[in-house]
Amino acid sequence: QVQLVESGGGLVQPGGSLRLSCAASGFAFSVSGMSWYRQAPGKERELVARISSGGGSTGYADSVKGRFTISRDNGKNTVYLQMNSLKPEGTAVYYCAEGYMEPASWGQGSQVTVSS
């Protein structure tokens, strides 16, 4: 079955950086688009970034453009989210998802807390 396991979350000060990883298994990762979403307390889940199967096409929410970078390693079945210049409003549970336009499967989420 599909498994998506996120790691790399934690507590970081405003202006700091974190890199999230998502290890995928149970499906044809190298031909699947992948996405990162986040859900802040009391808010709806929102798309943060997405990447095509080969990595040649990416997209970002306006709120993270220029600060976050999505990438993937098809040899390791892993997708990454490099987050720089983090802001307190970036505090959320971050989810990895299979799919570029519509998520087909979800990971369990990784908590990111941005606070001094």
How does this structure look, described?
The chain is mainly beta and 116 residues long. The protein is 0% helix and 49% strand. It is built from no helices and eleven strands. The protein has strands at residues 3-7, 10-12, 18-25, 34-39, 46-51, 58-60, 68-73, 78-83, 92-98, 105-106, 110-114. Strands 2, 4, 5, 6, 9, 10 and 11 form a seven-stranded mixed beta sheet that branches. A four-stranded antiparallel beta sheet has the order 1-3-8-7, with no helix packed on it. Strand 7 and strand 8 form a beta hairpin. It starts with a strand and ends with a strand. The model has no long low-confidence stretch (mean pLDDT 97).
Task: Looking at this protein, list some descriptive labels.
7-stranded mixed β-sheet; mainly beta; 4-stranded antiparallel β-sheet; globular; 116 residues
DSSP strand tally: 11
Q: What is the N-to-C succession of helices and strands?
A: EEEEEEEEEEE
Q: What is the helix tally?
A: 0
What helical percentage do the residues reach?
under 10%
Structural class: mainly beta
Approximate shape: globular
What fraction strand?
over 45%
Question: Largest sheet at a glance?
Answer: 7 strands, mixed
Q: What's the pLDDT, averaged over the residues?
A: 97
Oligomer: single chain
Poorly predicted sequence stretches spanning 5 or more consecutive residues: none
The N- to C-terminal Cα distance equals 40 Å
C-alpha-based Rg, rounded? 13 Å
